[in-house]
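Quick start: read one record
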Amino acid sequence: MEPLLENQEELNENKHYPLAFYVTLCLLILVVIAGGFAGYLCYPFTAKIEGHWASTDETLKLRSTGRSWELTIPNYQQNKGLSLLYAGTWKASGINTYEGDQVKLLMKINKADFSKEELDKLKKKSDIYIVSKQTDKELTLQYTQKGIQKIQSQADLNKVVHVTLENIHWDKKQEKLFLNSSYFSNERIEFAYVK
């Protein structure tokens, strides 16, 4: 009689294993889903800041594609057709914060806004910049290290661009991107998503 009782107890215990297994499996699935969601919210994926952004005062424009980005100051120093451009790649530096890496300083010149003589002067060899790209409509100059030291106080361009993404939302238009750089302003500069 006693072996029969032991078999009955073993059968009862075996009935509980499947229930415990399913509960554990469900909890594990929930933990993985919650971890993935938390990881997306916290980890600085560059896809989160992809697109065109403009500062709220429309003085700065940021275009981010994959790991590459361009920060443009259009009509630089009130010169129509002259844009100062910082370009580089993103490097994750914290929870939804990104730093510029491999940053270059460029000047884009709209040829229609300048005379042929002015453009010819700019195309001449200089120790401050080199001609990076030229099309029918645009001339792009890339500043050399000597040129960078002449036009700005910070020689290390990788420290100029540092952004933080806040108010993360499924609709990008509700998100806010802040440029945290004392080079541009003592205050954080807010950017809104354009497209």
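The radius of gyration is 28 Å.
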